[in-house]
Amino acid sequence: MLNITMIGCGAIGVAVLELLENDAQLRVEHVIASAGSEALVQQRLASFKRPPQVLTALPADARPDLLVECAGHKAIEEHVLPALERGIACLIVSVGALSELGLVERLEAAAARGNTRIELLPGAIGGIDALSAAKVGGLDSVDYTGRKPARAWKNTPAEEVCNLDAIDQATVIFEGSAREAARLYPKNANVAATLSLAGLGLDRTRVTLIADPLSEENVHHFEARGAFGGFEMSLRGKPLQANPKTSALTVYSVVRALGNHAHAISI
Ligand SMILES: NC(=O)C1=CN([C@@H]2O[C@H](COP(=O)(O)OP(=O)(O)OC[C@H]3O[C@@H](n4cnc5c(N)ncnc54)[C@H](O)[C@@H]3O)[C@@H](O)[C@H]2O)C=CC1
Ligand SMILES: O=C([O-])CC(=O)C(=O)O
């Protein structure tokens, strides 16, 4: 049985816990919530048979087998870096946080000191294995387009580009590098960062973000070209009801990754 600590317990976290509730090999013992939100998180977990303990920091003597981050960019600095220093292996969904200059190097150094590892989860996208293999032979270009319903861009800089309540057709709200996309859209451009880190890097991966009032799906499309040939994929993700910015596949990606640590065969 693997003992897991989960950072953040919002739309992704609760859905992951639901899927793991009867799992014999994976057990989330602790959930780390933002200070002040413990009661709310406890309330979200009230219907669970054996709810995890809700804390605001990992106790000094806790030694989980794995820590999984499902919280947001700030949680990497706050919880993942110190856990790595303590030798705890970490799985991350807020991959866009790694767009901050120097953070990749700091994570690597912390993991080296703790003699442990960091796993960046594919989350809402697929094909990361193929893209990252293609990188070995050399990539020429990677172009990514993220298209989400207009409501998914609420409370983001997209509101300065167009009136999200009034647009009646697909509207480009961002064009630029993956680094800039991840900085401006921390809750909507983690996929852009993941594709970049697997492929051509944050500065050379071209990103287009679209608010589409006619779509009910989070559509992630990318095209890669290089020595290997060419490859394109389109993933039409269903958004989570609890958070329209987030695709359901992200939840399944977390459960798959945790399962791969517990099962004899990983796939
Ligand atoms: N890689 C991918 O494909 C995707 C990654 N994400 C990432 O996952 C994050 C979480 O997504 P959702 O669960 O949908 O968001 P959410 O907003 O529903 O839940 C996040 C929860 O984490 C808590 N939280 C925030 N900062 C925290 C901190 N420093 N320490 C402890 N708890 C903290 C919040 O209070 C909230 O309860 C997003 O912010 C995004 O960075 C989301 C979707 C796809
Ligand atoms: O869940 C999604 O569709 C993707 C997402 O929010 C992100 O890339 O940050």
UniProtKB/TrEMBL annotation:
Protein name from the UniProt record: L-aspartate dehydrogenase
GO molecular function terms attached to this record: aspartate dehydrogenase [NAD(P)+] activity; NAD binding; NADP binding; oxidoreductase activity, acting on the CH-NH2 group of donors, NAD or NADP as acceptor
Superkingdom per UniProt: Bacteria
Family, per entry: Belongs to the L-aspartate dehydrogenase family.
Chain residues that bind NAD(+): A124, N190
This enzyme's EC code(s): 1.4.1.21
Reactions that this protein is recorded to catalyse: L-aspartate + NAD(+) + H2O = oxaloacetate + NH4(+) + NADH + H(+); L-aspartate + NADP(+) + H2O = oxaloacetate + NH4(+) + NADPH + H(+)
Enzyme class: oxidoreductase
Organism from which the protein derives: Pseudomonas vranovensis
Gene3D superfamilies: Dihydrodipicolinate Reductase, domain 2, NAD(P)-binding Rossmann-like Domain
Function field: Specifically catalyzes the NAD or NADP-dependent dehydrogenation of L-aspartate to iminoaspartate.
More details: The iminoaspartate product is unstable in aqueous solution and can decompose to oxaloacetate and ammonia.
